[in-house]
Amino acid sequence: MDIIRRPRVSKEKTNLMPGSLLYTGKKRDEEILLQAIIYNADFFEEKTIKSIDELKQLDLKDKHLWLNVTGLHNVELIREIGEHFDILNLTLEDVLNLGQRPKWEEYDHYFFQICKMVMTQSDMIKHEQFAMVVGKDFIVTFQEDMKDVFEGVRDRLRNAKGKIRTRKPDYLSFALMDVVVDHYLIIIEMYADRIDDLEDELRADPDPSFINRLSTLKKEVNWLRRTVRPIKESVISFNKSQTPLIEKKTTPFLKDLLDHTTHLTENVELYMDELKDLMDHYNNQMNNKLNDILKVLTIFSVVFIPLTFMAGIYGMNFEYFPELSYKYAYPIFWGALLTVAGGMIYYFKRKGWL
């Protein structure tokens, strides 16, 4: 399972004033989709918004609004949405910056959360930026593509499952973040299975592609670590916030969300350490194999040193060699060579070097 890499964000933001709205993703031609869910304990309506004027005409008396914005490439429309909900340009700037670090910010009349949302797509991991602005009676979420991980939350709203229809948007924001964190947990456990497979393979005799697969896996888990660390920081800020937009009865759920996020970050760190141990184990294994090969070559070299010396003596071009005239000189010479070689090999075996 590999991570689908998104194109690098635009570098045109250099030297722009704070609050300048610039979409840093790839240019698109399709229209931005605005999906509205209007709800309270006794009412539910789901509709597609065609224009800002239609958005302004919604009847929200004693109701809550979840506006989901799919697509961020129409900067002017994003600006108009911000003006309608009184969202600061500094916040919209972060929404449009696809390389924005996950964070949580609090303002007078809304709070803001941004992070990476991950999901599985065939054998790949797809990720995209997800942002939400939560006010007293509204929540506006921003995402890049149609596919997301929130269909279960929508189903709970449609069918009035649990407490979600009776609570304010702060509880809905918790529910959305809880789903995001849960999907991280699902994906990191997939990586845990792959790590276990690599451990089993390492105990056997790994093939030459092992180190490449291990390095790729380590790189992907490291990407997850860089992503989930700031998510935990933002969830901590979410828990510590004293904003009146968060009801006290939502606090226990936020603590549970923090527990899940802590569990996620601990697992990522644990699996990262396991991958480092696997890398060290593999390198040690390769070094041991290399040392065994060098030891054998060294022993053979040592065995042949005296043999080479003896052969060198009788290979010299002196005119008189008394031994050469002896009838059994040649077999005696070979016997001496084999005796020396055999004696050295026997000695090395007794020492446990062979």
From TrEMBL:
Localization (cell): Cell membrane; Membrane
Transmembrane segment boundaries: 293-316, 328-348
One Pfam family per UniProt: CorA
Membrane protein topology class: Multi-pass membrane protein
Keywords, alphabetical: Cell membrane, Ion transport, Magnesium, Membrane, Transmembrane, Transmembrane helix, Transport
Gene3D superfamilies, A to Z: CorA soluble domain-like, Magnesium transport protein CorA, transmembrane region
Reaction(s) the record says it catalyses: Mg(2+)(in) = Mg(2+)(out)
Molecular function in Gene Ontology: cobalt ion binding; cobalt ion transmembrane transporter activity; magnesium ion binding; magnesium ion transmembrane transporter activity
Entry-linked InterPro entries: CorA_cytoplasmic_dom, CorA_TM1_TM2, Mg/Co-transport_prot_CorA, MgTranspt_CorA/ZnTranspt_ZntB
Superkingdom to which the source organism belongs: Bacteria
Gene Ontology terms: cellular component: plasma membrane
PANTHER family linked to this entry: CORA FAMILY METAL ION TRANSPORTER (EUROFUNG)
Family from the record: Belongs to the CorA metal ion transporter (MIT) (TC 1.A.35) family.
Role, per record: Mediates influx of magnesium ions. Alternates between open and closed states. Activated by low cytoplasmic Mg(2+) levels. Inactive when cytoplasmic Mg(2+) levels are high.
Protein name: Magnesium transport protein CorA
Species annotation: Roseivirga seohaensis subsp. aquiponti
Lineage: Bacteria, Pseudomonadati, Bacteroidota, Cytophagia, Cytophagales
